[in-house]
């Protein structure tokens, strides 16, 4: 139920953030493996989206490649890169997904 609330639950309405002086939106990148999404992942994505409360934020979630994760952790991923990317893209706070990122 917690995950469903994080993904689909209504949040209290708040005023729209003001655009930056030059009209640009701030882009925030949060990278991760996201292998078996859990509440901690959703909380990190939510916090990344809210990090600049007075500005419009575009949250880009970077998903590490299967090969990079296996090389770094010594074990294969449970979900494929495509599955992990799809789960991340479904998160209400994510605006864009960048894929096949190195694990550093």
TrEMBL record:
EC numbers for this chain: 2.7.7.14
Q: Which GO terms describe its cellular component?
A: cytoplasm
Cytidyltransferase-like domain mapped to chain residues = 30-100
Q: Which domain of life is it from?
A: Eukaryota
Extract one GO molecular function annotation from the record.
ethanolamine-phosphate cytidylyltransferase activity
- What keywords sit in the KW lines? Lipid biosynthesis, Lipid metabolism, Nucleotidyltransferase, Phospholipid biosynthesis, Phospholipid metabolism, Transferase
Please identify the protein, giving its name as recorded: ethanolamine-phosphate cytidylyltransferase
Question: What organism, scientifically named, is this protein from?
Answer: Strombidinopsis acuminata
